[in-house]
Amino acid sequence: MTLEDDAREYHRESPPGKLEISTTKPTNTQRDLSLAYSPGVAAPCRDIADDETLAYEYTAKENLVGVVSNGSAVLGLGDIGAQASKPVMEGKGVLFKRFADIDVFDVELDLEETEAFVQAVAAMEPTFGGINLEDIKAPQCFQIEERLREEMSIPVFHDDQHGTAIISGAALLNAVDIVGKDLSELEVTFAGAGAAATATARFYVSLGIPHENITMCDIDGILSESRAEAGDLDEYTEPFARGVSDGTLEDAMAGADVFVGLSVGGIVSQEMVRSMANDPIIFAMANPDPEISYEEAKNARDDMVIMATGRSDYPNQVNNVLGFPFIFRGALDVRATEINEEMKRAAAEALANLAREDVPDAVVKAYGDEPLQFGPNYLIPKPLDQRVLYEVTPAVAKAAMESGAARRERDLDVYREELEARLGKSREMMRVVLNKAMSNPKRVVLAEGEDEKTIRAASQLLEEGIAEPILVGRTTRILRKAEELGLDFDPIIANPHDGEWNHYADYLYEQRQRKGLTRTEASELIRQDPNYFASVMVEMDDADAMLTGLTHHYPSALRPPLQIIGTADDADYAAGVYMLTFKNRVVFCADATVNLDPDENVLAEVTKHTAELARRFNVEPRAALLSYSDFGSVENEGTRKPREAVKLLHDDPAVDFPVDGEMQADTALVEEMLTDTYDFADLDGPANVLVFPNLEAGNIGYKLLQRLGGAEAIGPMLVGMDKPVHVLQRGDEVKDIVNMAGVAVVDAQE
Q1: Residue 37 annotated among the catalytic residues of the structure
Q2: Gene3D superfamilies this protein is in (predicted)?
């Protein structure tokens, strides 16, 4: 099948289209329905009638955007009409929801006349929090946007104009920095004089490029003053008429620092590129075929050529999805009356700054593991980089507040955390712990200090103030890798191969001499095994916590800290706990990594440790000890152990949380089963601490929940140790290391 055939099937598959409406409130009972509609709905209606701003509190208006088009200029398809444009508008809605959690109604208006279109859209203001105009031909698109901005008190944004301007503007800010030029001295040539080109040129002026330094060309050549005098230009292109003689695009590109293509493919030759100034910047954004191909532009000359296109298969894709979802998100959340120039500049600057940050592993994997590091081939973030939501959006909201466009003030620190929480419950939960960690950072020794991911994590930990990382490894290797990664930080390094560490060897020998370890072997372990080195460092209070496991099997990584640090005074056993987050639920699963076949004493102790861990995440524990039996329905050795563990916990005066069992997993998690069938159970709600009867069940259970239930897993978090130690999983990403370091810091604080 061809791509077109696949696309037809994709859209046709039941239910047809790409969007649906879902409810956000319960509708399970008669009372629910009476609240949702008659008679209960009358109360908010009366309130809004008295104060229209309450619509933002009582309805979906604050999170609802109208994507409006008449289908007169659909990208790559032209004037196909309103009905045929609907799949495109639905697709725009998908992007709004996917990237910024904004709901959309797509509205296709079969109206060609400007005034009728304006009046139709303006009449819909009570419905929407913002209007995204899409695929409307020029110059009608300019007229419609201007009129609607005047008549409506909600943001109106024509993405075809401003989206390209903002994203390419971000790329330009970084490109200029890389080639060492100044915005105020750039000579810029545009190919194309349509909506996107004129809006981009205006935006570049707001970024600092002198208006007189911009030369714009259309199909007939340079927009000159003589053409303006002849009436060849409209009111939107005439401001870019330069006092130069008529000429061609080839003439305009000679000596230019920047070429911006928003026209058609194949109109720029290598000779034209060679005529440009040194280290030229070329944004060839015609789709699907750029004005000049990436390879041709790069090969045209020997100096640096910075190249961007609109294509995803080459570096520096100028993709509007980096802009409109996050600009609207910020505008909606402060109830902005408009999207002004200050908000657009803030978005471009935030995107440019984000491109200079270390790129998350998940983003690198999503793009085929290609290197992503700030430079000529990485000017702007990738669309799948989730950080855009909580880096760009607050910048837009701040600009709205500072420029007077906002009708609602937001605490930007709190707002950033709200945005991060939209990306998943796990981020919300981790933010609780990371905020605690930042209140009093501790020293965390990272045993695998030479690993690239560990170095990147250390940089983030230091930059965000989460921890004071100590990297174990050879100094020269760590510093060289940090430089190669473009990380500007001064790490604390503990090099076992250099320096005086005899006191570590002495301590290790004292601890393990009765376990068959010789003095020579102790010295070798300190010098050669970073896990023993890091364990002794923590035990001797030269560090507060330890992380390892990224490049080791779990048992081999756990063995040294168990031997050296051991379990806490009030603990006989350690255990591995995973926190699983769902959309509206969090559960802690234990034990999934350590105890193979625990008895009732181990199960009881693991339950207490896991409950303590839950409280570090501000979750009040309700513990269930799981089995295939409900409260004695099956009697054998397997069901006896969790039942006996519950008795031990009930008899323990230190246990101040509800716990019960043995019970089946669905009994523990379904409130109706607990409150109806087993109303005698001690749990007053669904369990959030699940203690499995053995390691096999725990490991299988958490992985099934993760893979089939769509849960995000954080862990394993090691509980029961005398000092904070956490063993990562092999292949964990940088964010996992940062998260576990945050957990370790909170452990150390307590």
Answers
A1: yes
A2: 3.40.50.10950, Isocitrate/Isopropylmalate dehydrogenase-like, Malic enzyme, N-terminal domain, NAD(P)-binding Rossmann-like Domain
